[in-house]
Amino acid sequence: MEALRSVQETARVTKLYDYKILDTAPETAYDAIVFLATHICNAPIAVISLLDTHRQWFKAKIGLDVCETSRDVSFCAHAILQPEILVVPDALEDPRFCDNPLVTGEPRIRFYAGSPLITPDGYTLGTLCIIDHHPRVLTEAQIEALKALSRQVVAQLELKLSLQELRREMGERRQLEASQQGLINLNRELESLVQQRTFDLQTSKTDLEIRVQERTLELTASLHRLQEVQAELIQREAMLRHDALHDRLTGLPNRTQFLHRLEQTIQRSQKKQVINTPFYSLI
After folding, report:
1. Where are the domains of the chain?
2. pLDDT in tens, 175-216
3. For residue range 203-213, what is the model confidence (pLDDT) as tens digits?
4. CATH architecture of 2-171
5. β-bridge mates for residue 55, sequence order
């Protein structure tokens, strides 16, 4: 049984820590609740008490100067063990509290009523309690009002938890959006790089084509010039040959041309004689 209680208590304290409420600054919403509790129940002291591992800490209080006390002397440590409100009409007559230093000394508790602060998932975090210096009882209406106010405390805690979760989700969303924006920026940079590389390649290709065209034109021009030079050489050779074989004044064949033709005629005659000699010998 003690082991089970230890496990349950560990889970309860862990749940309390989830709310991140301990040691926070005073808040108007909680202060208003203890103010209403003192007026509805006509009590000098009202406290929102949260039970930590070794202490009870007061989120809001009226009529007390301290912010926390040891859990060992806490009335609320008893109140969280039951689901309904704990009412102690006279602490001096109750064996659980008659020797408690909070009873025998300041703040001299005689009357106590604590309504447990139970979360939606069943964990009791502490109590909303009222305290008086004289023995007394509460009316049913006051008890129901105290229960309603304790539920308001839990509602405020749940609201705080929801806001924390919302902030966390918003933070994650901002991180996700930042990551997405980073991917978008990276994609844009990659697109820009690809476009630049494509432009460079196109520019290089265009430059190469221009150089090839220019070189082709140069080679074509050189070929035409070579053909012109060759034609000029042929024409000049023909002119030289004509000048060598014709008289410059009359244009008629000169002695050189005459001797050249005579030599050709003699050569043809000799070839013809050689061919005819065998024929005459046969006759």
Report:
1. 2-171
2. 777 777 777 777 777 777 777 777 666 666 677 777 778 777
3. 666 777 777 78
4. 2-Layer Sandwich (3.30)
5. 70
